[in-house]
Fold this protein.
Amino acid sequence: MYSTEEKKERALLVGVHFPYEERWVKIDSLEELQSLTKTAGVIVVEKILQNLQRPVPGTFIGKGKLHELNGIASSLSLDTIIFDEDLTPSQVSNIEGTTGTKVLDRAELILDIFAQHAKTKVAQIEVELTQLLFRLPRLSGKGIALSRLGGGIGTRGPGETKLETDRRRIRAKIRTLKKELKNIEKARKVQSKRRKGRKRIAIVGYTNAGKTSVMNALTHANLKTDDQLFSTLDATTRAFVTEDGERYLITDTVGFIRRLPHSLISSFHSTLEEAVIADLRLHVVDVSHPYVELQIRAGDEVLETLDVKEKPSIYVFNKIDLAQDEVGYLNRRFPNSIFTSAKTGRGIKELIEMIKEFYIKMNLKATATLV
Ligand SMILES: Nc1nc2c(ncn2[C@@H]2O[C@H](COP(=O)(O)OP(=O)(O)OP(=O)(O)O)[C@@H](O)[C@H]2O)c(=O)[nH]1
Ligand SMILES: [Mg+2]
């Protein structure tokens, strides 16, 4: 972790635009990489978007461009170059060799933020497991990237000790972590059984969309919210009781992002479990975000990965106090939706009504099936 006195790392961000891609999507993705980098406690010195016909196998970007990066890295005294693309282990090591600067890709940066923000035991194990799984292939081959262990931002994460240079020991550690997770999951299952028959709702959606804020508005809790990516990494469940005495359990959980590393989704099984088994998912979307549809799609993709896309959910279009323009369009396009402001409280009562209606319909269906 960084203390304020500690010297912050300085990074250059590199995005890549291929001819078949929409340029604005890549510009927005690079903007998002900037937010991610800041969240990781690193200063963004410069960002560039590079046009490229196709990836160059060994180095991802061309030799000429690499030498240019080399020049920029030394003139701006950079510590790190962060690519907005997934790089292979050998690409990372080749680019590092040419530029003499540490190289990270988007996935590794996200993992690093997760490592910083994980608070509970289960989230910490999930993050460490993902980092080890992520780095294990980077140890294969002829000494490739061995020196990179302990990479990441600063020297957090599993790369802190020499121990990780031993692949066998990493594998053993992976086994131990998996076992620990299994035990935790067993305990959770018992807890989950106790919740059976209760009305269970999960909050899902893009990072920074306002999930925790909506949770706070519904339950009058005081969970930590922040204008940064991935504030919440741990699943938190709270109860709320409506005026008619109905009791609901609602779970806030880790946010999604475009191109979330798949290994992360599977390692975060315990944390995301409630999103899978809940009766209803509230898919929170930030309507003030310039590219709302991209957010919705990214959220939907993760829900598909979790195999719950077809299960009941409501789109909660949040931060309506900041953007009104899209309301008509979104309403037509997503009929099963509600507009809220967790900040002013607007729409929260209506959201509770929608939840109630959902359960009434669900119970009617269940009764009909029994008959
Ligand atoms: N103006 C406005 N700001 C909001 C609203 N809801 C949330 N915010 C702000 O948006 C930021 C993100 O809110 P969070 O509730 O932490 O978002 P989250 O989806 O839980 O984010 P992560 O846990 O990081 O994925 C905070 O600065 C909130 O104060 C809203 O309705 N209106
Ligand atoms: Mg949150």
Observations:
- The longest helix spans residues 167-194.
- The CA atoms of residues 262 and 305 lie 9 Å apart.
- The chain is about 45% helix and 15% strand.
- The pocket of magnesium ion (ligand 2) is lined by residues 211-212, 231-232 (CB under 6 Å).
